[in-house]
Amino acid sequence: MTELMGAFSGLTDSLRDLWRSGGLEIQSEMGLPGTVGVLITAAACFGVVAAILGTPGGGRRFVIGFSAFFLSMTLIPAFAVWGIFWKPFGMLLAVFWSCFSAMIYAQTHVMPCDETLNSPANNVIRLEGEHMTEQHSKQSDG
To answer: Which residues pair with 28 in a beta bridge?
Structure first.
């Protein structure tokens, strides 16, 4: 919606002028709200949310979110080399918001991947004192 409303039109025009002043010839334009831009943005947003919600630990989630945002920014010069002007600001906002929302959700809910890190093993025999030969587990060792 920000692209349709023209919220980033000033930034987009200044980026386009920067590429042209740098000597890059732009033959076409791509990004939101076009079909290809919507598909790339949707894939990036759903992918980063799935990766964040499936990864244990806040630090690891932050690294995934930062990497997704950084990789989204690298689309700008990659497409410019091909002569395609990529309108990045709508996608960057969507990826940032997806990362932020997934991080908040993962911090406020018990995620299945976090639960496996904190649960004690059920079939471990604890050897303590003189009862080292006694088996303390009721489950089979498989």
So the answer is: 84
